[in-house]
Structure formats: structure tokens, C-alpha cells
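Why run this: before we spend reagent on co-expression, it is cheaper to look at a predicted model of the complex and decide which construct boundaries make sense. The entries below are exactly what would go into the expression plan.
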Amino acid sequence: MAGNATEPLIETRGLVKRFGSFTALNGVDLQVFPGEVHALLGDNGAGKSTLIKILSGVFKPTDGEIIVEGRTVSFSSPRDATGAGIGTVYQDLALNALTSVTRNFFLGREITHFPGPFGLLKMGEMDRIATEEMAKIGINVADPNQPVGTMSGGQRQTLAIARAIYFGAKVLILDEPTSALGQKQQMEVLKTIRKVQKFGDIAIILITHNEIHARLIADRFTFLSLGEVIGRGTSKDLEGDDIKRLMAGGAEIGDLAKELAV
Amino acid sequence: MTQATTTRKESDRLASKGWLKSLLARPEIGPIGVMLLLFGMLGYFSIPAGEFSLNPFAGEGFNALGIRNNLRVIAQLGIIALGAGLLIIAGEFDLSIGSMIGFAGACMAMVLRWGFAIVIPYISFEGGMHVEFFTLIYIDNISPIGAIMITMCFTLFFGWLQGYIVVRSGLPSFIVTLGGLFFLRGLTEVSLRAFNHRPDQTKGATTVTELPDIKNIIDVPGHGEMERSAAKALPDADLLAILKDVPADTVASLTERLTYTAQRVADAKTQIMAAKGVKPLERALENAIESGNTVMAETIRNKIDTFVVTPTVPKEVTDIDVARAYIDTLGSARPIADFFGGDILQPIFDFLYFPVDWNTNNFGNQFAPGLYSCVMIWVLLAILCYVVLSRTQAGNWIYSTGGNLQAAKANGVPTDRVKISLFVFSAFCATIFATCQVFEVNTADAAKGNLKELEAIAAAVIGGIVMTGGFGTVVGIIVGAFIFGLAKEAFFYIPGIDGSFYRVFLGLVIIASALLNENIRKRIMGTL
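The model came back. C-alpha cells follow.
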């Protein structure tokens, strides 16, 4: 399943981020290859959020570099990151539940008949594209004019992912895409991620708390703890318990199980 | 662990929603029902007492004058409701609309009456320290379009300022525009008194009167520009001179029309006289029958049967009448004033009088000259708003700004600009309202527009706008304005009840609409 490319699509070298005297990231190296799902795991406060906020242009790193397709880049805004092909799907998805699928799909990037904010929308074309793009990653929208509020959490994830890909994301950052969902919808989202993985040219960074999901879908793992990488490897390299242990930040989760059993 | 398998897909759940349910999820459906109810009420209750008709359109609420007056109330409210409604969809409020109307009207009237000046105060030290004024610009005799532009500069700037404060400070727009409400109303009164004061400083009225009837200034051939009423009061010789240059077919058609009016007025008079003459006889007949006096009854019955009124002779149509009628047909020499304060659809209303004979009052004259111009302006604004809100990129931005501000920002929507623009648009609508009023009645009053901001918000809520933003349509806002205006009229016509009951009714409608809107919103959000 793992991509065969040898060149990483996105890479960080010695990424450091300090907030005043607090060091959130202390020299993080990360390599993400096209066609791969790279699981970024770690306990709360490990620095996952800081890392993805740097990658998506929200924060500027204190030190270190980001390399996209072999070129060192520097983002001063989320728009720069989007322009460089990094699409971030946040937990709240940035969707307006009260308007339609199409309107959300094209929010801020509407297709219009003539330029300017008063350009008439090409509704038909937008409906068609939104439906097609979502179908590509496995969701058939019955009606592109249905309000997003009527969609399930899984479908909303799909909409946000399809949107990011359509608008040029080569690196897709998914921030806990399954955390707020029910079992069935979690599986739906995983299927969607698998579909994107199969495209082969998109690198996916998956932030998750869920070890089972990570093991189901990820090709490669990076474990963060207290701002540093404490372990990494491909899915073949890691044993089940390794993942559990590393996710908890290296502590012996087995001991905890015994303690709780008392 | 058992593996539960099912063929049911997520999308099936949406498909189960039938057409009825999706119709009920339309934000306008409830308000349209109320509007139809009010149409029925207005029609039914405005049928004069003692008459019976199953057709509610036979009522006085739907005669030509009723339509003219009702539509004016509805259109005026509709204009500001568009501004208020769009702003609420974007998640903000404007409570300064009413004061803005007063301010804009006063500003415009003052500029029209006294001209426009930019005066710079400075401190002079000659002969003791005192403040002197340097007049930078003084323009007397400003045209209607000039007055409108100058007023727009002030009101749009103030709208922009309110929006800027709201987006920059993050304060609730409720508070910022509440400040605007007091500030503008006070400013209007202060400036009106300052301009109006008598030389002895005793009294300053908060009104502007004595404006010419600008929309009715016409270019009379051979006399130049003058007010229509003055032109019609010209000496007979002048009137006949004017008529000399009028084409023969125009004279012919004017004469035909005037002859018709004369005949129609005479007929109406005859009818009234006949009714007046027979009525006492009928009453006497009833009395006679009651008292059993058959001889008397027979006599009276005979009298009724043979009762004849000499038909009134129609007034003769003179050349002077034709000349005056011709002056009535002359177009305004101030098209802008006429655009905002004049009438529209006169040819249709003329046609409905002659030859259709529907737009005719009890005395045989033409009832309504046309509709107020503000109706057309409302229609134009409504079409514009509809297209912008539902068919353009800007519309999508407005919805998302109010629906999920963070999402809109994350997707690159310039939400601050959207909000500020809509504050400006709200001020624009208030100014248009004031413009129509000033040119209709040629006066301004600092109290104009009082409480209009609440009426506009109420109309928007009744029309399905959710106060938290992100939800609603222009069609809804239009329907809301209709409901508000119709309720005012319909309750006025119900015999034997206090007209103020319309407020009781509207209060209930507002709460019911808000509940309904919230229900629809939740259904769409998927939380119900």
C-alpha cells in the first residue's frame, strides 16, 4: 500500500517553535511521501497542533525549515500554505451548516460569470463539480443543494476533504477527523481517506488519538512527546503494543492497566 | 463482537424527507400563509357595512385609493427592511435606521432650502479672542440630485463608521447602533433648531417647511419653469395661449376625457340625488305598513314608483379646462425629484378610470392618480437584493459571514468588508426612504422615522430571518413587509374594534415567526 516514491512531498528539518520561554517543538523532523497516510500520534500537549499550525501557515517556526517538493518554503499566512498545496481540514471543518453543499464547497472561491463580488454564480457548473469531486472520494450527494446541516458528520468530513483536494491540496492535513463521530461514520471517513490514499499523488498527514484507526490506515507513524519525536516507523516495523506505548508518550500503558485493575 | 450489516446508506435518510416536509422547511412558507390571511381580512372587513359580497376584493381596502395607500406603507417599510434584513443575515443589527431616516430627511430638506456650505471655524484674536467662521464653499439653490448626493455622503459615512467600529472593536452591533440611534436623532434636532431659529433666538422648530413642490415644477411653454399649481392658476388668456401650440389630437383626447369625466360626475350626482330622494319615502312606507295604514302605504308606493330625479346636466368642457388638463400632462422638469416623490403607473390608472371605470370614486372623479414612486424603488431594490443575495459571490459571503464567521474567515471571505458594506447599505436604504418622503410631502421633521428601525427588524423576523444570522431570503423580507403593512390596514377596517389591535396581533406574529424560524433553522442544522 505504501507509495513507492522515494522523494518526500513535504519534509520538515529541525523544526523549532518557542512561545516566549515555552518550547512547543524542539527540532522535529518529518517526512511525508505521496500516496501515503502518515499518522502523527501523541498525547495532549505533545506538539501535534503546533506542528500542523506551522505546516498550514498559521504559525511561523522559530527555527528549522519546511521543504515542499524539494524547495524550501516560508509561509506568512494560511493563504501561502494553501497556495503551496497544503490543505488543512480542521476539526470544526470550516463549514456553514445553513447553506448548501455547493455553496460550502466553493465558499470564498466561487465560480462567477464575471469577476468581482457581484459576479453572478455559475450555479450549474458549481453543482456539477461539487457532486463529481465528492463522488471521487466515495460520497454520492443526493442533492448538492441540500444544506450541510442535513449531512452526517462523515459526509461533512468528506466535503471538507474533497474541497481541499479540488483547490489544489497535494498535502492533506486531517486534524482528528474521526474524533467527534459515531462508529459507522468513523469507518466512512476512513474509507474516504483510503480513497485519497489510492490516488497516489497526495500525501496525507493524519492526526489522531485513535490507535485502531491509525493502525488500520496509516503507512507510516511519527510519535511526538513534549515537542520531540520519540519514535517513528512504517506500519510493518511497529508492533501493536509499541504504538500504544509511544502514543501515551512512552509510559508503560501496561502498568496502568494493571493499576486500574486493582 | 457481532458484525452488523446493513444495506441502508446515509443518503437514504435524506431521501425519506418528502416534498411536504421540504416545502415546510422553506423559510417563507409560514409568512406567506399569514400574508394571505391578512389579504383576506383586509378585503373582507373593508367591504362597507350593509353590503354583502363573497368576493373580498370588493372591499375598500382594494379599491384604487386603498391599493395606493396600502402599497405606500408596505413599500416604505419594505425598503428599510431590505437593509435591516441583509445585515441581520450577516449577523449584525442596525438600530440607527429610524434616526438615520430623520437625519437624512432633515439634511436633504435643509440643503434644498438653504443650500450647502462648508464653514471652517477659527479663533480670531482681533478685537479680543473670539471664534470666527470662514466660508470655504457656499452653494445656493442645489438641485435634488445634489441634495441627495450630499446627504448620502453623510449617511453612508455614518453607516461605514458604525460598521468599522463594530468589526474593529468586536462590540455588539446592538450597542454601537444604539449609540447611533441617540446620536443621530439628537444631531438632527440640534441642527434643525440651529438653522430654524428666528433672529431673536426665541424658537427653533425641528421641521423644515416651505419647500417648493419640487417634483411638480414643470416647464410651461412661454412661461418657463413654475409649479404645476401656479401654472394652472395662470390667467385665462395665458392658458388659452398655451393651448394654441398643443397638437390637435392631444386636444381631442383631452377633451374626450374631460367630457367623460363631466358626464360621469353628473351621473354620480344624479344617482346620489335619486337615492337621497327615495330614502325618506321608503322609510315612510315602512312606517305605514307597520301601522297598518294600507291607503297611505299604497299612496307612498305609487310615489316611489313614479319618483323621478331630473338628471344633472354635465358641466360643459371649456378650453380653459382643456388647458389645465394639458398642464397636468406635462412631465416634471425635476426628474430626480419626480423619480423619488412622484407617482408611477399613471397611464394604467388613467386607463382604469377611462374607459374601464374602476378607478372612480363615489362622485365620479378619478380616484387614485397612480402608485407612489417608492413602490417602484422598493421593487428595484428588492430585485437587486434578491440577485445579490442568492445569485452572486457576495450573497454567499453574506450567508457565510452570518452563518459561521470562523468558517467564512478560514475560507478567505473578507467578513469585515462584508459587514461594513451591509452597514453602509442599511444607511443607504434609510436614506432612500427619507428621499422618497421628502420629495413626496416637501417637508422634513426631526421626528420622522421614529421606531422605524424596530419595524424594519420586525418585518425581517416575520419574513423568516433568523436573528443569529446566516438564514433568510429576500422573498421572506418582502413578505414580512407585506404582513406588517397589511396588518396595520386590515385591523383598521374591522368594525367595532380598536385599530391598535394590529400591534397586539403583530406582537404575536413576531413571536410565532421567531419560534417558527428557530424551528426551521434547527431542522436544517440537523439538531431537531
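The mean pLDDT of chain B is 85. Chain B has 21 helices and eight strands. Bring this page to Monday's planning discussion.
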